Amino acid sequence: MTAPVEPTASGTRRLHPVIAIDGPAGAGKSTLASHLARRFGFLNLETGAMYRALALKALEGTTALDDESSLMRLAETTHIVLESRPNESNRVLLDGADVTARIREKDVAEAASQVSVHPRVRAWMVERQRAMGARGGVVMEGRDIGTHVFPDAEVKIFLDAADAVRGERRFLQDAAAGKAPTQEAVLAAVRDRDARDRNRAASPLQPAPDAVHLDSSSMTLEEVCARAEALVQEKISAGT
Q1: 53 or 87: whose pLDDT is higher?
Q2: Which of 49, 69, 206, 236 is most exposed, with the fewest beta carbons within 10 Å of its own?
Q3: Would 5 be classed as within a structural domain?
Q4: Of residues 202 and 124, which shows the higher confidence score?
C-alpha cells in the first residue's frame, strides 16, 4: 500500500506521487508516460492532447492561431475531457465530441505548437492541469510540467535525445503510418519545433533543476522504461 508522499506547495498531502516528464519533440515522452501510467495504475494526463484539442477547435472555426485574445475567448467556451482507457491511449472529448484520432494528425499537432506559445492560453491550461493532478496518482508529460505546472512533483524526468535521433524516430513513425515526408523534412520540423519551444517567452522548454536527465539517444525503450520505473518505485518506497 502506498503511503502519503510529502506535502505539496499548498500544504496538502498527496496519496500518490505526481510524475512529471518533460523534454523536446520526438524524445519519447508520450510512450514513457503511457508505460508508467499502466505500470503503476496512474492516470496518464496528456497535456499535449489538451493543447491539440483547443487548436483543433480553432482550426475548425475562424479563430486565428496568432490571435491570443480570440483564442482566450474560444478557450473560455471550451470543455476538454480526458478519459482513461485500459491498455489504450486516453479518449479525448472536445465539447462532448470524440476527437481522439483527429488530434493526432499533423495539421493539428502543428497548430497546437502555435497555440501553446501564448502566455494567457498556457495559464488557462495550467489551471486545469493542476486541478486534474492535484490529488496525485498522475503522469504528466509536456515541456514545462516540472518547471511550471507541477514544480512540486515528486518525480521529475527530463527525457532527451540528439535531434538527429529524434528526427529519425519521427520519420520511422510517419513511414509506418503511411505518410511520406522525407527524413530531411522531418528533421527540419523537429528542429523548428525545438527552437519554438526553447525560445518562447512563456515557460520555455528547459529541465527543472531537480529533474533526472535521461538521454535516450543510445538507450532502448526497455532501458528507458526500466530506469524511469526505478525512479518512481524509489519515491513510492521512500514514503512507506
Answers
A1: 53
A2: 69
A3: no
A4: 124
Indicate the DSSP class of residue 13: B
Following CA atoms 124, 128, 129, 135 in sequence, which dihedral angle do they give, to the nearest 10 degrees?
Answer: 150
Query: Are 140 and 228 in a shared domain?
Result: yes
Q: How far apart are CA 132 and CA 80, in angstroms?
A: 11
The dihedral built from the CA positions of residue 6, 89, 115 and 193, taken in this order, carries a sign that is: positive
Which structural domain range is residue 51 located in?
47-135
Residues 206-232 have pLDDT tens digits of: 899 999 999 999 999 999 999 999 999
C-alpha 234/C-alpha 142 separation (Å) is 22
For residue 66, what is its C-alpha cell? 496568432
Q: Which CATH number covers residue 88?
A: 3.40.50.300
Q: Which residue has the higher pLDDT, 43 or 240?
A: 43
- Ramachandran quadrant class, 212 (left: phi over 0; alpha: psi -120 to 50; beta: rest): beta
Spatial separation of the C-alpha atoms in residues 54 and 140, rounded to whole Å:
18
Q: Please tell me whether residue 25 adopts helix, strand or coil conformation.
A: coil
Total of domains in the chain: 2
> How many Å apart are CA 32 and CA 222, to the nearest integer?
10
